[in-house]
Amino acid sequence: MELWFSEKHTRNVKLSIKVDRQLCSMHSDFQRIDVFESKEFGRFLVLDGYMMLTEKDEFIYHEMMVHVPMAVHPDVKRVLVIGAGDGGVARELIRYPGVEAIDLVEIDKAVVDVCKKYLPQTACGFDDPRVHVYYQDGMKYIRRHENEYDLVIVDSTDPFGPGEGLFTREFYGNCYKALKSDGVMVNQHESPFYDNDALAMQRAHKRIIHSFEISKVYQAHIPTYPSGHWLFGFASKKYHPLKDFNGARWERFGIQTRYYNPELHLGAFALPNYVEEMLYEVEAER
């Protein structure tokens, strides 16, 4: 008998992956957590039936969340990460010796525990002494911080369930206040391809541009995410992701990456026309 994991991307489209075995299935106080093993994608994490990451393609997402802002901001010392209970963002951040502290706020401790046990490839980021984990609601945590962080990374789940509050105008405004005068925020921006995902992307972008002087969108190809076409938001008080980008400085870190590179950094901000039109629609409403 064959076992398959299937995730609906729309009412008419789904992604299916053949499963060798199920390693974990549990209900936390917040959501259902599953870990499966497959021949094609290795182990993968599922929350409430939605794919979060696979061992085969997670490097794309995490590299683009971290290295893009780190190649723009010249002196990141304190970082706030909201979500990211799998540890992948922390894993990429600890590769920078200049980063002094990484405060990671995850609402569901069970996600961290499961990833440490079953997904050590990503969860190894928790082992660094600079990483401090707080098991709290990210919305409540950030309200208490002002002018404290050089970089805020919002690695939230989709805009419903436990992650719903991380897509509000109030939340992005609090991120702005938590940043120093030259701070940068990066968040996952959903996909522009399917209608419901595109609406969520537009809502997030609309709310971010109300708070930040600079707000740009960039993209990556992530095979297991809906449509494979995924967007990220870069928002800043001072630095422009292209005008202030310093590829030569980033290369001096000597970080070996599998997806990100300085040439790709520039190209990632060159968006298809249909995406530019969606962004223009909400920017014109300012």
From TrEMBL:
GO terms for cellular component: cytosol. Its EC number is 2.5.1.16. The keyword Thylakoid does not apply. Spermidine binds at residues 62, 86, 155-158. Residues 2-237 form the PABS domain. Pathway: Amine and polyamine biosynthesis; spermidine biosynthesis; spermidine from putrescine: step 1/1. PROSITE patterns: PABS_2. The active site is at 155 (proton acceptor). S-methyl-5'-thioadenosine binds at residues 31, 106, 137-138, 162. It is an enzyme of class 2 (transferase). GO terms for biological process: spermidine biosynthetic process. Catalyzes the irreversible transfer of a propylamine group from the amino donor S-adenosylmethioninamine (decarboxy-AdoMet) to putrescine (1,4-diaminobutane) to yield spermidine. This is Polyamine aminopropyltransferase. The gene is speE.
